[in-house]
């Protein structure tokens, strides 16, 4: 591209991300957390259901 930005395929991006993750020390790999906690998920789902009923 004109400004140097290039796009990679999803498969290439995923493979590079996994390669990076598994190159890190085991304790860093084990510390990986994603998403929200169960309590917050329940709050969001309850709000969503209430919104759907009201609509």
Using the alpha-carbon principal axes, give the shape: flat
Give the terminus-to-terminus CA distance: 45 Å
Unreliable stretches, pLDDT < 50, 5 or more residues? none
- What is the gyration radius calculated from CA atoms? 19 Å
* Residues in helix, %: 55-70%
Helix and strand element order: HHH
Number of β-strand runs? 0
Main sheet: strands, sense, barrel: none
Q: Tell me the strand percentage band.
A: under 5%
Overall structural class, as computed from helix and strand content, comes to mainly alpha
Number of helices: 3
**Average pLDDT level:** 93
List the helices and strands and how they pair.
Elements: H1 10-23, H2 26-30, H3 38-54
